[in-house]
Amino acid sequence: MAVRDAAAGTPVPGRDEAVALLFERAHYRHDPRWLLPVPPRLCLACALELLPEPGVSLVRKKHVLSCFRDVLVRHASLVTQLVAQDQRVCIHFINMLFGLLCNVEDGSIANLCIEVLIQLTTQLKLEQTIHCLLDECHKELCNMPSMRGSLATLTFLGKLVDAIPALADKLVMEHGDLMEHLLRGLVYPSEGVQASVCYLYGKLYSSPMAAEILSGHFQEKLCSLFLSTLDGAQTKALQINCLGLLRQLLKYDLFVSMIMNRSALAESTESVAGHPGETSLPLVLKKLLLSRDETLQVASAHCITAVLVCSPEKYAPAFIHADIPEFLFEHLSSSSEVLVWSSYNCLILLAEEPLFFSKCHTVYGIESVVRSLQESLRMNNTELHKQGVLLFAEILTRQPEEIKLFTSSAMCRDAGRALQEAVSSPVLEVAAEAVKATSAFLRKDHQSAPPVQYRELRALLEAMLDRCADFSQTPLSRRSLGHASSRDVEKDILRRGKFLLNTLEGFRNACRLAVEFQNEPSAQENPFTAPSAEKEDTLEAFSEFLLSACDSICIPMVMRHLEQATHPALMEVFFSILHSLLVIVPHMKEKFSKKLAASSFIRLTLELKARFCSGPSHSALNQACSSFLYYLCTSLLSAPEKTEPPSPEELSAVSELLQHGLPHVSSRSPESLAFLSDCQYVEGAARQRQYCVLLLFYLAYTHEDRFVSEAELFVAVQSFLLSLQDQGEHPPLTVFRASIYLLAVCQDKDDALDEPVVSAIRKFLEGIPDLHVIYTHHPLLLRLFLLHPELMSRFGHRVLELWFSWEESSYEELDDVPSAGQPMLPASLAALFLIFRSSPSILLILLDLIYSSPVDIAHKVLIVLRTFLRRNEDVQVGGLIRAHFLLILQRLLVEHGASPSEALGNLPSLLSLLSLVQLRNESEQELDSMAMKLLHQVSKLCGKCSPTDEDVLQPSFNFLYWSLHQTTLGSQKRAAAVLLSSTALIELLEKLLALTWAEEGSPRTTLLCSAWLLTASFSAQQHDGNLQVHRTLSVELDQVLKALNFPKKKAALLSAAILRFLRTALQQSFSSSLVALVPSGAQPPPAPEDTVLAPLGTSQVLSLVIGLQNLLVQKDPLLSHACVGCLEALLDYLHARSPDIALHVASQPWNRFLLFTLLDAGENSFLQPEILRLMTLFVRFQSSSVLSHEEVGLVLQSAALADLSSLSNTTLQALRGFILQVQSMGLLADQSTTQTLQVSLEGFPPRASSAQSPLQDMLCLGGVAVSLSHIRD
User: Fold this and answer.
1) What is residue 1266's DSSP assignment?
2) Its domain of life (predicted)?
3) CB atoms within 10 A of CB 129
4) Element (H, E) at 687
């Protein structure tokens, strides 16, 4: 039994594996070389005899084949070398395996045979072996009566051609009749056979040569059969192999055309006949898309893509009509990344066909696209991201405007958020595609679903700009090799430029969107926003964001990129953006335009035009630059700085000029200057270009962008004006204004205009109705007019008037401030003062301005002139100003003799200036005839005024007062005689003095002060010089005393003035011929003791003393001087008439209290001139009860210890008077006190011995002219 089993070749359980691999019956005859030296120990000769043996079990054969396959895989070279030793054995071995393949019915053994044959054939690489196999296959298929047993052969052939692709051509050319057998297999009712046939066909058609040879076979026989097989396939194997064959076929345009034509014919036959005909590929692929098998869905999508790649416009309609886009959109929700990616690819190609949109597939599928994009962006698949964003971009770009893509605002919002996430992707390629999609998304028809989501759009743009900014700021790649590094840097710059260009295109579309929505009332704001909510979702807020984003992000990015490279396309988009922004935010247009001009954008635009647009190339860039310059220039010209805006007609003319001329301005700056300087005859079109060039230079210069040489521009503008004059042309006002401005700012301080140019300018100016239309507020323009006599004489007055009308500051802070304490002058005023110093005659024009200009301008001129005179005391213009003022005043009095104050509102300003000029005169200066004439005219003017004309009277009184006190004694007498001759002036003073105690209608306190001081001065001069009196001035004595006892609040200066008047009357013993002190109403007869004091009474004297004491307690320096002086005069008056009363008044106990109150002001407070004078008065009248001898000694001792060098001249004079009075009274009997006094006298500086008042004691206190010496001495 064992022998029989062994002979049959059946393995016995438990037998060693090596025994199972050997054919024991024949192994002993085999050469040992056939036994493999590696496990498993297989004998090839045994295998050769064992495998075809009918008596060996299939299990054992399968084991042997499996082991041979394994050893062939592991030790291919060993087995190959062993088999190839004998070609006959090799061929026999292959034939044996092929025979086993054809005869065995076990599929697993057949598969092993195929695998071993394929491996052995490919390893041996013997042509004879391959030919042998092909011949055997051919013979097998030809001799086979039925295709039933052809499965193994067909499968082997397919895998053999797959393993050795070159066999496809050999098989087709040498065994062409096999194709008929393949067709038989394709119709054989076995999907296994059909699958094998399709697999073999797929391998054959993978070879281009074989495919070309088989093209006729396919068209005539295979095409329809194959499509029907694909359509009817039920098993997955057949479906997969059919789709594999289809994909191979679709690689060739010829087969695509055949299949699609056959499909189109099938569809037309079906639609006409009403019954199914041939199979249509789109419908078959649609059925596969509908299957639940993901592999088939992906393969179907790949096939659709392969067809569309050949010609989308030709083949896409067939798939669209088959509603395939609908199912592709559905597949976008799949969790399979491969299927989603494949669907993206199909849809991208279908989107190239307009029918895809007209049949509203995008409207149906846009929600799926957005949702899929959002999901895919969460995956880590860059290719999926790119394809999804690319599909979205294609849909957004190609969607017809008349078909609304987003049917709701919420859907539009979700799309924007998806794009925002894609734009922020760290992968540059994804972000770049997302930027393109964003650009397409920002279309009006995509955003028209109300309400417009401005906040979402803003977030999307911010993300896009931030991504671009991040990319533009990444460092450029560097390599160690110089050339490679340079290429890499150029490549990086190019990539950045492309990304920046795409970003700017998106931003430009956002700007266009804002412009288009300006005419859409429903798009202005979100109608569903609560009234109390912040208006962020409005077009205005969105437009302001665009402007801000461009200013802070876009412009810096473009400027940085310009430092590395210049791309015309990028700059064209950039200037289109700037152009749009000058339109969409009207209320910020002016500010933005000025910022652009100040940032050298005029220069940048002109340089780009000169570089790229000098010829016909880059017309789009030229148009964008020209449009930007046009809107920028018109914006700047319509809202100019420091000049009048042009009229609508003028602006319209200039706009038309710029619109036609700017596209033709494309030369560099030197060429433009040469063109502007052209002295030849200039034609109309060339002249317009000159106008444009000049306006561009003007606007650049006004915003401090001086990109051309000032000297060269100065010469060019002069030549331009002379050319205009030579051709008899008159430029537009705006152009002429620009010319004058450029001449002014480019003129060197040492250069003057040529005489012909000045003459041309004057001629042009004379043709202008008013200078304000060409005036620009600039110091250099003023200098141009004022430093050329021909221009100043004709236009200086108007130019200066325009200057002061344009000055924003009123200069109030410069008025009434000592020159030493003034801050630095404003630059414009400092420049103006330099012009005044160079030509003092200009000051006469200023006087005329004060005379004739409106009040506000006249006031400015007055302050400026005052400030100039104060700060420039070395400029002697007093005589010039006074002479001119005299002419003005004479003209005024002639023209408005009755009431000149009502005829001119600026008269007070002129008089104020005259007072200042008078104050600048040196003391002790003789009054010339001019001064006497002025005194006469001013007094005459005052006589024509009423007490209510305070604005005229105040500066007039100041002038008269200073004229009296700021000259020599002889001139004072002459001046007083002139003034006293004006009875109208005396009458006016009498009225004013009477108004001092009027309850109603009283003028300002300052005017009353001047009236009292002027009256005191007149009285003193008349009395001292015994001058003729033409009219007496009456004053009520009781009212004077009452005014001192009950002074007005905050009227110390008025009290001082009244005291000065009363002191003068007391010094004259009330005997003045000019002033008559009369009682108030009916008075009772005086008492006998009062007769000697007349016109004063004892009670009045005591009342006056009390009033003086009260005024002294106020401790006002000027008022104290006036009080002490009046008290001195009063005691002198009393002593002359009644010494007892004088001593009584001087010895009043209240005087001691008053003295100690004054001394309570601090250490050495007695060293004040008014206190020293008061103590001197008490010593003189021996008022020991007020100031004892011991106290006098203490005062002198303290004075000896004091630092006398630090005391003022007035204090030293008072101290000297006190010491002399003490000496004369003999109050110092003590020798030590006498020595102390001598030391004190010797310690006085020499100036203390002078009894004269200071040379300069003229002040203006609160608008009142005051001489300190007049009140004090």
Assistant:
1) E
2) Eukaryota
3) 21
4) helix 684-702
148: which 2 tokens? 């039933």
* Amino acid, res. 467: R
Distance CA 1040, CA 1051 (A): 14
Identity of the residue numbered 165: P
Phi then psi dihedrals of residue 668, to 5 deg: -75, 165
Alpha-carbon distance of 636 to 1268, in angstroms, equals: 58
Q: Which residue has the tokens 């509102």?
A: 905
Three-state SS at 769: coil
> What does 420-489 look like in DSSP terms, one character per residue?
HHHHT-SSHHHHHHHHHHHHHH--TTTS-SSSP-HHHHHHHHHHHHHHHHHHHHSPPP--SSHHHHHHHH
Cβ atoms of 346 and 328 within 8 Å: the answer is yes
Provide the pLDDT for residue 480. Answer: 40
Distant-in-sequence, close-in-space partners of 607: CB < 8 Å, separation ≥ 6 = 668
pLDDT at position 640: 86
Roughly what angle, to the nearest 10 degrees, separates helices 1052-1067 and 1037-1045? 140
- Mind listing the pLDDT tens digit for each residue in 607-663? 999 999 887 888 999 999 999 999 999 999 998 888 888 889 999 999 999 999 999
Radius of gyration of the chain (CA): 59
Pairing of strands 1264-1267, 1258-1261: antiparallel
Half-sphere exposure of 555 (CA within 13 A, CB side): 16
163-187 as b/e: b if 16+ CB within 10 A: ebeebbbbbbeebeebbebbbbbbe
Q: What is the pLDDT of residues 1114-1135, one digit of tens each?
A: 888 899 999 999 999 999 999 9
pLDDT computed for residue 417 by the predictor: 94
Q: Is the peptide bond before 40 cis (omega within 30 degrees of 0)?
A: yes
Strand bridging mode 1033-1036 / 1075-1078: parallel
Helix axes 789-806, 842-852, angle to 10 degrees: 50
- Residue 773 gets which letter from DSSP? G
* Cα distance between residue 49 and residue 23, in whole Å: 7
Q: Which of 59-68, 327-336, 770-779, 877-886 shows the lowest mean pLDDT across its residues?
A: 877-886
Q: What contacts 1125, CB < 8 A, 6 or more positions away? A: 1059, 1060, 1063, 1173, 1271, 1272, 1273
Closest by CA to 1007, choosing from 1044, 960, 1040, 1065, is: 960
Give the pair of three-digit tokens for residue 851.
């005379």
Cβ 63 vs Cβ 42: under 8 Å: no
Between residues 207 and 272, the one the model is more confident about: 207
So what's the pLDDT on residue 877?
Answer: 62
DSSP string, 1042-1103: HHHHSPPTT-HHHHHHHHHHHHHHHHTTT--SSEEEE-SS--PPPPHHHHTTTTS-HHHHHH
